[in-house]
Automatic annotation (TrEMBL):
The chain crosses the membrane at residues 12-31, 38-58, 123-147, 159-182, 239-263, 293-312, 346-365, 371-394, 415-437, 449-474. It comes from the Bacteria. It is found in: Cell membrane. Keywords: Cell membrane, Membrane, Transmembrane, Transmembrane helix, Transport. GO terms for molecular function: transmembrane transporter activity. It is a multi-pass membrane protein. This is Transporter.
């Protein structure tokens, strides 16, 4: 038996680093945070890597090592360390944070197709929010139907698109950094050699943007199953995680430099989050005399990746919720499956929640660009809520070290471990709460600003509240099964 286990441990530190990088990183992470902070984001990247990302990934390593057979990820960890009720809320959180994510994917697909066929970013500036959100709703419902039929083809396309997206991200960094030296184009941001250009102004506005940084580096719990497939896990897994952090930091910093050479950090365009990657590739294509070749490649890649992510994210988180959580907390109607094994009522619940989040904002947010930016920022508020369960699980594990042994230990001292977990938990919560403040100029459109603030507060509270209501419904409807 030991020989089998040893043979199974084929992952080395470089495999862990590369797998983690492909899982957590993408070009849009660079674009979105540059849009929020400009070149000062370089310092922010260094701080978030040291203070948050490295401890986060190493905590995940210990949790993955302690629960080698846990198939449900975070909810399985919480169930083992506490009780079924907390595990249900962990599974619910993991599912429900995907609602804003699903609401934005149709927008991303439309922006990609606009660049592919029109070759410019006018769509985000001229389109009516109601028209766009109506089209988004149709796209989303089409993918709900598609996901109910099976997503094998899109899974395969998604894997291909993931590799292509990673390649495009690396290509962007290489071309962006080298362009001024090879093509002698003018650098857009002045004083890039001055250290003060990279120092953030640590004011209230700065702290409202931290949620986007946390959102960018989160999600490493997805690679936790590979801890126990790593040779000499106690040494090679943390080494792989540290190399991963270095790779992400280098990509983030060089990517920010590349954007700074193309876009003036002191005058950031309002549509940078939506159009920035395409504008940058268009600039590089013109600089290297290949026209819109890079734009077309990125648009096709982004369309396929977003389509695959949309279909998969309708199904996979719901399967985790309904499959791993205690049935005592889930109304039996949600567990009903069709002949293809699809939880059809769960799909309907997903469709209703996402449809509301697609249509309601369009009634009060003026302009497609503001709507796009708002929904992206909402994701940065809501998605990190699932990371809170990772840190809670780690603190509970640290309290029970005698019971749960693991090949890899982040820290051996119980109190130090709880301190790391509490720090990461509080930083995540702090980022999510301050992230609720709208990033637009209040003076320019006060009614839209207040509408966004209200949605930013109401949306996560409503999603959490629904998770509290379902067990009450289950108590009334599942009496014959309890």
């Amino acid at each position: 038996m030991s020989d089998v286990n040893n043979n199974a441990k084929t992952f080395r530190w470089w495999n862990i680093a590369l797998l983690g990088f492909a899982t957590v990183w993408g070009l849009n992470n660079v674009i979105n945070n540059f849009a929020n902070q400009g070149l000062a984001v370089v310092t922010s990247w260094i701080l978030i890597m040291i203070l948050y990302f490295v401890p986060y990934t190493l905590m995940v390593g210990q949790l993955g090592s302690a629960f080698q057979e846990a198939g449900g990820g975070v909810s399985s960890w919480v169930k083992a360390l506490s009780n079924n009720k907390l595990a249900y809320f962990a599974a619910w959180t993991y599912w429900v944070v995907h609602v804003p994510y699903l609401a934005q994917k149709p927008q991303i697909i439309m922006v990609s197709l606009s660049w592919l066929f029109k070759g410019n970013g006018s769509f985000i500036k001229t389109a009516s929010p109601l028209v766009v959100q109506g089209a988004s709703l149709l796209i989303f419902l089409a993918f709900v139907w598609l996901a109910s039929k099976g997503t094998t083809t899109l899974n395969n396309l998604g894997s291909i698109a993931g590799i292509a997206m990673f390649t495009m991200s690396m290509l962007f960094i290489i071309l962006g950094v080298s362009a001024p030296f090879i093509t002698h184009v003018q650098i857009a941001t002045p004083n890039m050699g001055d250290i003060h250009t990279y120092i953030p102004k640590f004011d209230f506005q700065y702290f409202t943007t931290i949620s986007m940084l946390v959102f960018a580096v989160g999600g490493s719990e997805k690679i936790s199953p590979y801890v126990n497939k790593t040779k000499n896990a106690s040494k090679e897994f943390p080494l792989g995680m540290i190399i991963l952090a270095v790779m992400v930091a280098v990509s983030a910093i060089l990517g920010s430099f590349a954007i700074g050479m193309i876009v003036n950090s002191n005058h950031i365009p309002a549509d940078l989050m939506a159009n920035g990657a395409y504008q940058a590739f268009q600039f590089l294509g013109n600089s290297f005399h290949v026209g819109n070749l890079f734009v077309w490649a990125f648009a096709i890649t982004n369309t396929i990746a977003s389509a695959a992510a949309l279909a998969i994210s309708i199904d996979a988180p719901l399967r985790m919720l309904l499959g791993d959580a205690d049935k005592k907390y889930i109304p039996k109607a949600l567990l009903k499956k069709n002949k293809r094994g699809i939880a059809i009522n769960g799909y309907k619940m997903t469709a209703v929640l996402v449809s509301i989040l697609i249509i309601v904002p369009a009634l009060g947010i003026n302009g497609m660009n503001d709507l796009y930016n708002w929904l992206l920022n909402l994701n940065s508020i809501v998605m990190p809520m699932r990371y809170l369960w990772v840190f809670l699980a780690y603190m509970m594990l640290t309290k029970q070290l005698d019971k749960y042994k693991s090949d890899y230990m982040f820290v051996k001292n119980r109190y130090v471990g709880i301190g790391f977990g509490l720090w990461a938990f509080l930083l995540t919560a702090f980022a999510c709460i301050l992230g609720m403040v709208p990033k637009m100029n209040m003076a320019q459109d006060p009614s839209s600003w207040w509408f966004q603030l209200a949605l930013n507060i109401i949306t996560p509270l409503a999603l959490i509240a629904l998770g509290l209501i379902l067990p009450a419904i289950a108590k009334r409807t599942n009496t014959d099964e309890i």
